[in-house]
Write a structure and sequence with these properties.
With about 200 residues, the chain is α+β, with helices and mostly antiparallel strands. The protein has three helices and eleven strands. The protein has a five-stranded antiparallel sheet. It is globular and about 75 Å long.
Amino acid sequence: MVKFKEFKIGELFETNPYRDGRQVLTGGNVPAKKLKPGNTPRISVTSKNNGVIGYYEDVDMNSYRVFENAISVSFLGTVFYHPYRASYDMKVHCLRLKDHELSECEALYLVSVLKKLVSVYNYSNQLSSTEIVELVIPIPVKPSADDVNYTQDDIDWDYMESYIRATEKEVIADVVEYKNAVIENTKNIVSGAGLS
C-alpha cells in the first residue's frame, strides 16, 4: 500500500529570500521590443501550447530568466513541465526540485497533482510566488521506521515513475481498443449497406 506525506512546496522546490519570507523562482518582465525571433521557448501564463508563446533569442537583462527541467506554474493556475531550456515570463513561477533531477514521468506525476492543487486560481484569485511556497502537496513516500519525520529523501520516486508508465499503457490500450471498435463498426456499416 502506498503511503502519502504532505510537503509544503517550499520544502521540496528551490526558493529565494523575499522580504520577511521565501518565494519560489519566478520569470521576469522583458519588453516585447527586446524579444527577437530565436530558439529559446518563452513560457507565459497561457493555457495553450504548453505555455509557450514563441521562440526568441536570449536577452542580456537581469529580468530575463531561463530555467531547464522545471515545472511552470502561472499566477492563473496553468501548470506545465519543461524538460528543455526555456525563458519564463513575469507571473510565471518556476518549480525546480532542490536535491533531485526530475525524470519525465516524475514531472508528469507532479504536474497532475499540482494542476489539481492550483485549479482554484484564476485572474480574480491570483497565485503569488510567496503564497505557492506554503501550499501543501501530497507526495508518495517509502515505508519508514520513523512514520512522523519524513524528508525529501523518503520520497518514492519509483512509485511516481511506475504509476505514470502504467497510466500510459492503459491509455494506449484504450486508444487501440477504440480504434479497433471504430474499424469494426465501419466494416459493419459498409457491409450492411451492400458497399463491400
